[in-house]
């Protein structure tokens, strides 16, 4: 499973990969050790700059149970737009 820790990287990925067309859904949450192992891609891959996280899931893991669907525009307003 692949995730991103920063909202700006989610947007960059969705826009860059043309197979993801609106309406797409954003989920926010955290994987847990019971689901498998997680590692930030930049920790093991040279020159990687995004907040991409690789998750290796155990068989039968259900990480989506720790995530909730959220509205991208509302999350953007709550987080990124306030930094400007």
Could you characterize the architecture of this molecule?
By secondary structure, this protein is α+β, with helices and mostly antiparallel strands. The protein is built from two helices and five strands; from the N terminus they run βαββββα. The strands form two sheets. A three-stranded antiparallel sheet has the order 1-4-3. The longest helix has 10 residues, at 7-16.
Intertermini distance: 32 Å
Radius of gyration: 14 Å
Helical segment count: 2
Mean pLDDT rating: 82
Any idea what the shape is?
globular
**Strand tally, please?**
5
In quaternary terms, these chains amount to single chain
Structural class: alpha+beta
Short characterization:
The protein has 84 residues and is of the alpha+beta class. It is built from 2 helices and 5 strands; from the N terminus they run βαββββα. A 3-stranded antiparallel sheet has the order 1-4-3. A two-stranded antiparallel sheet has the order 2-5.
Features:
84 residues; alpha+beta; two-stranded antiparallel ribbon; 2 helices
Secondary structure elements and pairings:
Blueprint: E1 2-4, H1 7-16, E2 26-29, E3 36-40, E4 52-57, E5 67-70, H2 72-78
Antiparallel strand pairs: 1-4, 2-5, 3-4
């Amino acid at each position: 499973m692949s995730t991103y820790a920063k909202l700006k990287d989610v947007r960059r990925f969705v826009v860059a990969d043309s197979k993801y067309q609106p309406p797409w859904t954003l989920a926010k949450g955290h994987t847990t050790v019971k689901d498998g192992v997680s590692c930030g891609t930049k920790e093991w891959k040279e020159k990687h700059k995004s907040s991409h996280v690789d998750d290796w899931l155990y068989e039968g893991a259900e990480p989506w149970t720790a995530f909730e669907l959220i509205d991208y525009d509302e999350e953007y307003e709550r987080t990124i737009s306030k930094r400007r």
